[in-house]
Write a structure and sequence with these properties.
By secondary structure, the protein is an alpha/beta fold. The protein is built from 13 helices and 13 strands.
Length: 366
């Protein structure tokens, strides 16, 4: 049986100094490593100047550290690699190399790796959703994440998790071609604008923002993994039996479509029981039922967060500490009642059948 591959790609310097508290660079691989099946191979791709540091950090771990630069040299005769090398020289030329340029390089390298190697490609802040064994099945078609149905172009799709079958690279090849075509044109237009002294950096970033989505969404056998997301900087969780993964955001700022979320809700969204217990222990007057609103939902209490993401033990803890199970999560589009928690309340009036449906739908199992 062909081993499943997981590819993490990091463009930049080493952020982690202690594997017990990994930074954005290694948080995903380190969390994934102890939970994957024996036949799963985890690859961490980085720039050559940081390979030795990452290799030393991960010594003795079941994570293979690989150099992106070595891959490009090894495959230099490949038509796409030649174009990527030319793009790399532009992105990291004098005065370049900011976070937007690094993201662009990371995106094209992720597509190239999927084209050459196949398997799963995850952002480095993609982790197991639960502390349980992880399975990574093979699929006959290219997959990417989507957070709504029917899928709306450039709004509901995302590429923090992708899969390409090793035996059929047609879709990802098409995506790679399309990505390179678009980026090369954008970079040409940028150079013209710079020379004409009319360059607008914000417009440049806007032009490039959705190129990866456009490229990955080409319709050669595309399939979606559907995900649940409360909006804002809340995590995005694949609604799958396997793999059960979740994407975390830094919550350091509000992107155009992701406002920041309060620390307490963030603790719950990360299923951090010890942090929640410590906060509640410190402050007897803490309002455990305060709610927030995102672009997607209103009535988002900490309990709603726990149940939405399937954190049963967290939900029970919050109820024991006084969380109100009667506050209903509302979907903003039509204000329909999405979720109640009567099945978690001692005074439950929910039928056994309804309870089973709710528990199944929101990932809570007995």
């Amino acid at each position: 049986m062909r081993a499943s591959k997981i590819h993490y790609t990091w463009i930049g310097e080493v952020k982690t100094t202690d594997l017990d508290h990994p930074g954005h660079d290694l948080v995903g691989p380190c969390a994934m490593m102890p939970l994957v099946d024996a036949e799963v191979l985890i690859y961490f791709w980085c720039l050559k100047e940081y390979k030795d540091q990452f290799s030393a950090l991960l010594a003795g771990k079941n994570i293979v550290v690989l150099s992106i630069n070595a891959l490009l040299v090894d495959k230099k005769d490949n038509e796409y690699v030649a174009r990527i090398l030319a793009l790399q020289s532009i992105l990291f030329s004098d005065g370049r190399g900011d976070i937007r340029d690094r993201v662009t390089f990371k995106e094209v390298i992720s597509l190239l790796i999927l084209y050459l190697e196949g398997g799963y490609a995850f952002d480095t802040n993609v982790l197991p959703a639960y502390n349980e064994k992880m399975h990574f099945p093979s699929h006959p078609a290219f997959h990417m994440a989507a957070i709504d149905y029917p899928v709306k172009k450039n709004r509901d799709q995302d590429v923090w998790a992708m899969y390409s079958p090793q035996i059929d690279s047609r879709h990802v090849q098409s995506a790679l071609e399309r990505y390179l075509d678009c980026i090369e044109q954008i970079e040409y237009d940028r150079e013209v604008a710079v020379r004409g002294k009319i360059f607008d950096y914000e417009q440049y970033k806007q032009n490039i923002l959705d190129v990866i989505i456009e490229a990955a969404s080409c319709r050669v056998g595309l399939q979606y993994w559907f995900a649940r997301h409360l909006g804002g900087n809340f995590p995005v969780q694949l609604h799958l039996e396997h793999p059960k993964i979740i994407k975390y955001y830094a919550n350091s700022h509000g992107a155009a479509d992701r406002q920041t979320i309060p620390p307490f809700h963030l603790m719950v969204s990360k299923n951090d029981m010890s942090a929640v217990k410590e906060l509640l222990k410190k402050d007897d007057n803490f309002d455990i039922n305060f709610s927030i609103e995102t672009e997607k939902y209103s009535g988002i209490t900490a309990l709603n967060v726990a149940v939405f993401y399937g954190y049963q033990a967290m939900a029970m803890l919050l109820i024991e500490q006084g969380a109100d199970a009667g506050i209903v999560l509302q979907e903003n589009r039509n204000q329909s009642a999405l979720l109640t928690h009567s099945f978690l309340s001692p005074s439950s009036q929910t039928s056994d059948g309804d309870e089973a449906v709710l528990r199944t739908s929101f990932g809570i199992t007995t």
